[in-house]
Design a protein that fits this description.
about 500 residues, 14 helices, six-stranded parallel sheet, nine-stranded mixed sheet, 2 domains, globular, alpha/beta, Rossmann fold
Length: about 500
């Protein structure tokens, strides 16, 4: 985040394990194409895809070309740029679990010299330690090497600690980049600017002015090609333990002394440690888990969770989670943070809603009192922007007010392309900037708060609550807020 993103960072090698996988094709390669297309940082770069498939370089490039055409808007993709980008891409057949495969990778990297070398592990977490161990044994880890670990890192605290200990025996902590792509979104960057670059909100950013906070990440897609992985993971591990808790940290942390990585991450860690742990009874009262059944998305029929990729009918994996979280701090005591995420929801949407208290004494007609609360809406996707809801008088003879929005649309306000989240984060890795990546103690603290919820669900013995695909989740999710006298933003 610090410094100039336009500066030349010199040559680098980016080795992408899982180079034929969904993440590589859908996000990483398109993000790298965008960066190259913008004329930045790629003059002396090599992108080395590593995967088990027996492909020639030409066959691999054909797969990447197809994916880039699919996931990059037509207006941004042209063949001349593609050919220049493709010149940087190589392919090496490597089975991450087989030490023999690393000989070919060693030969490819043999003449790289002392430049930056990044190993991006876009694989299942079970392979993280194995790959890092083989890299070390092959002599591929240098002082200029960095490793990127995708989420979810582990299945619980013990497994996460084991991975971190074993990877940490090979790489220094400042060489390990635990990635959460939501922290690379422009709106999250602007949330930091909103809080710490302006004096307007800081006096209001506390329990005195703020009534509640809602964080929602809703997806219309189902499990797609990840049925096996998702059935072993679920929404709590896949989304809450990382994405939603990281957003909560940015919202709730105290102002850091600087924007230096450890200054920011120290404050995020304090938020995670301040989360009130839940007893089994509180898990039952403050959490909702759901699983989608057949319904319709945008008028198109879709099947149930169990219909996708042969998932077992008795699977208890949750595809929806809603949680009421609270912080034990002076700033946030008594302010509920409602977290929600789900698949096959009514809309694809990610947003943060900060609801302020109503005016302490209403002098306007009582008919409009219910709508007099101010609200800040931070939109993360599909569009990125900020909306501040305020009350304004309707023109006319009578005193009638209604909510109006002050809008900041980033696409309209800044006549330049917004960086893709993965594009930003990959470049941060290459530059060695750790601010937007999770530190080991952050990960431990997140798992410590999540584990009682997992254990509570395991001992309750009930099934996830069913919800129809194309809705906003189980009715119990609305009831979670109604009990406090509130409602989700879209229901207000």
């Amino acid at each position: 985040m610090d410094g100039n993103y336009e500066q030349d960072i010199g040559g680098f090698d980016l080795v992408l394990f899982g180079g034929t996988g969904d993440l590589a094709m859908r996000k990483l390669m398109p993000g790298l194409y965008y960066h190259h297309h913008s004329g930045r940082d790629m003059v002396d770069a090599r992108i080395i895809a590593a995967a088990r498939q027996d492909l020639s370089r030409e066959q691999y490039l054909a797969k990447v070309h197809e994916s880039c055409q699919k996931f990059i808007p037509t207006a941004d993709f042209d063949e001349a740029s593609w050919l220049r980008f493709a010149a940087h891409i190589e392919y090496v057949k490597v089975d991450g679990a087989d030490a023999e495969g690393y000989k070919a990778l060693s030969a490819t990297l043999a003449h790289s010299g002392e430049r930056v070398r990044v190993f991006y592990l876009a694989t299942i977490p079970d392979l993280f330690v194995t790959i890092c161990t083989h890299l070390a044994h092959a002599g591929l880890v240098t002082t200029h090497t960095r490793v990127v670990l995708e989420k979810p890192l582990g299945r619980d605290l013990a497994s996460a600690q084991k991975i971190n200990e074993q990877v940490g025996a090979i790489f220094r902590e400042d060489q390990i980049f635990r990635i959460d792509h939501y922290l690379g979104k422009e709106t999250v960057q602007n949330l930091l600017a909103l809080r710490f670059g302006n004096t307007l909100f800081e006096p209001l950013w506390n329990r005195v002015a703020i009534r509640d906070v809602q964080i929602t990440i809703a997806e219309q897609v189902g499990v797609e090609t990840r049925g096996d992985f998702y059935d072993r993971t679920g929404a709590l591990r896949d989304m809450v333990q990382n994405h939603l808790l990281q957003l909560l940290c940015i919202l709730a942390m105290e102002p850091p002394a600087s924007i230096d990585p450890d200054a920011v991450r120290d404050e995020k860690l304090k938020v995670l440690r301040a989360l009130k742990p839940m007893s089994p009874q509180e898990v039952a009262e403050r959490t909702v888990r759901g699983q989608y059944r057949a319904g319709a998305i945008n008028g198109k029929p879709v099947g149930s969770f169990h219909d996708e990729l042969g998932i077992a009918k008795d699977s208890l994996t949750e595809t929806f989670v809603a949680i009421k979280a609270e912080l034990s701090t002076w700033r946030w005591a008594g302010v509920p943070f409602y977290l929600r995420t789900g698949k096959r929801m009514q809309e694809r949407m990610a947003e943060i809603v900060v609801n302020f208290h109503e005016v302490p004494h209403a002098i306007l007609p009582s008919a409009v009192r219910g709508s007099q609360s101010n609200r800040l809406i931070i939109q993360l996707q599909p569009d990125q922007g900020l909306k501040l809801c305020m009350m304004a008088k309707v023109p006319g003879a009578e005193m009638r007010v209604r909510p109006v929005h002050l809008n900041l649309d980033f696409a309209e306000s800044f006549e330049m392309r917004q960086w893709d989240a993965y594009e930003r984060l990959i470049m941060d890795v290459i530059r060695g900037r750790l601010t937007l990546f999770m530190r080991r103690d952050e990960l431990d603290a997140a798992w410590r708060w999540i584990e009682p919820i997992m254990h509570g669900w395991a001992t309750q013995g009930d099934r996830p609550k069913a919800y129809t695909a194309g809705t906003w989740g189980p009715a119990a999710s609305s009831a979670l807020l109604v009990r406090d006298g509130y409602c989700w933003h879209e229901e207000s």
